[in-house]
Amino acid sequence: MNSVKIQIGPRSYQIACDPTDEDKVRKFGTLIDENYQKLGTARAAQEADNLVFAALFMADELDEARQGLSGARTELAQANAELSRAKDDITNATRKAKADVEQDIEKASKGKAELHAEIETLRKAEEHSRKEVTKLKEEVSSLKEEARHQHDLFGSEEDTAAHSKALAEKLEALAKRAEATASELEGQAKAS
Description:
About 85% of the residues lie in helices and about 5% in strands. The chain is mainly alpha-helical. It has a two-stranded antiparallel ribbon. α1 crosses α2 (about 45-155) and α2 (about 45-155) runs antiparallel to α3 (about 155-190). The radius of gyration is 54 Å and the shape is rod-shaped.
C-alpha cells in the first residue's frame, strides 16, 4: 500500500491506497477541496461540519449527474426504438421495391416475348408477300408474252395490243399493291 497526501481546506490528510489508485485519490481530494472552498466565509467552527457540507455539495452534483444519466438513458431507449422502427420501414420498403421491380421485369419479359412473336409473324408475312409479288410478276410476264401472240388468234395486232396493254396495266397495278403491302409489313417489323 502507498500513501497519498491530499489537502482539503486548511488540513492535509494521508490516505492509504493501492499504487494504481494514487491518481484517482489525488483527483478526488482536489474535487473535495473545490467543494470545501464553496463554503467561503460561512465555514463552521468544526472541520468535520465543513467536510459534511463539502460532501453535501458533492452529493448534490452526483444526484444531478444521475438524473441526467437517467434522462439520457430514456432518450437513448426512445432513439433505439425509433431506429428499430426506421429499420423495419426500410426493410419493408426494400421488399416492396424488390417485388415491384420483379413484377416490372416479368412484364417486360412477357412484352419482349410478345414483340418477338409479332416480329416473327411480320417476317413470315413479308416473306409470303415477296413470294406472291414474285409469282404475280411472273404471271404478268407470262400474260404479256401470251398477249403478244394472241393477235394471231383474235384479230389484228392493234386490238390485241390494246387488250394486252389494259390487262398488263391491271396486273401491274396489282403487283404494285402487293409490293406496297410487303413494304408496309417490312416497315412495321423494323419499327417493332
